[in-house]
Design a protein that fits this description.
globular; 35% strand; six-stranded antiparallel β-barrel; alpha+beta
Length: 139
């Protein structure tokens, strides 16, 4: 992989995502690795071809965030493939809100650990965070 200057800052996350290839959902559960305003990387059990157009859904965001992206790279790492995706859509308000929400969920997860010593999975943190803040979203 070439060294390129990143335009957008990446934030780590391991939230579950749904990936659709050729209008078929991947049967295996995939997980984010990191995300930015311009794209993301995720862990997949199956290899995905470079330049493939895929649809990614993040079911634990409100509203549910769906985006179309192009696979820029895919490499084997242990028992999974790390896949880099560039969003095809230009950066818009929904993308910004979704990335900020994912960062907020990760911060909530870390804060719960710091304050209470409670270890949450990213999935559990997302559910708790959404339940705590869902009223703000609906207003």
């Amino acid at each position: 992989m070439e060294n390129k200057i990143r335009i957008f800052k990446r934030s780590k996350s391991d939230l579950p995502i749904d990936v659709s290839l050729d209008n078929d959902a991947n049967a295996e559960k995939d997980f984010l690795n990191d995300i930015s305003l311009g794209g993301l990387s995720f862990k997949s059990k199956v290899p995905i071809q470079k330049n493939k157009i895929i649809e990614i859904t993040m079911p634990l965001t409100y509203p549910v965030f769906q985006v179309i992206g192009r696979v820029l790279w895919s490499r084997k790492e242990g028992d999974f493939y790390l896949v880099g995706v560039k969003f095809i859509i230009p950066v818009n308000e929904l993308t910004i809100e979704a990335v900020e929400e994912i960062c907020d969920i990760d911060e909530y997860k870390n804060e719960v650990y710091r304050k209470n010593g409670r270890i949450l999975s990213s999935e559990d943190a997302a559910v708790e965070w959404l339940n705590a803040y869902i009223k703000e979203f609906k207003e």
